[in-house]
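To whoever is covering the structure queue this week,

Two jobs came back overnight. Logging them here so there's a record in the thread.

Job A:
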Amino acid sequence: MVKHVAGYGAKAVAKARAKTPGSTEGMPGPTENPATNLMMADVAIRAGSYLARRAIERGILRGRYGDNTAKQIIRNKSLGQSLLSFGLAKLAIRNVPGAVIVGGGAIAKTLYDRRQSKRRQRHEGDRELIEQAHGED
């Protein structure tokens, strides 16, 4: 069975090589090496998304807490908070069940927050973010 799979794979690679030009003339990017160009594009995209995410977070917080406090809140975000949001985003984009789990969790948290009084929610959220801005645990 494995021989058949290896044979099919070898044929597929041979077909792909036959259809792919060997020349890198006109290859977009700063170098002639496509792997290097792909790596540079990946770094640029990740850096851009990081900057966009920080700008959006700061914009959301700036209206309520002011520019300096918003910067401090973002700067003092814990490693656990960052890893949790990264992990949830990865889970949500990998497959439909992951998206359902993350989306369902977000809906459940929203419904839980709505059951509490608005004043209590605001007070609790303000307290957590101000503590984060001042670097208190």
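Job B:
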Amino acid sequence: MSHGHDNPILHPEVQMSSTRGYFTGFLISLVLMAAATAMVSSHAFPPFGLLMVITICAAIAIIAQIYFLLHIDVSEHNIWNTVSLVLFIPLFILTIGLTWWMFSQLYLRTMPMMPGMH
């Protein structure tokens, strides 16, 4: 093996995993999802404020999942996972942005204009 371990259980990434870490990440994500669902159901904020609160909840949940479930951090034995995440983020944002742009342009080109609008 490339790390010199005959036993895969001794690999550093396997050693980092724990039931407590997985449960913590899952619980944080579950609580944030329930909070966002409750805020949407109760109309707790005006639309823009609600969007901001949901975005913050989603960002915290993503960070919790990256750290607790995927175990991505800046440690030396985990550097390639961190590099791949850093390279993935701009591509993900670009994909979402271009998809939004494509559908907005498609909507403008295919939907009939309302009477009186130019």
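Note for Job B: Residues 11 and 65 are 21 Å apart (CA to CA).

Please reply-all if you pick these up so we don't duplicate work.
Q.
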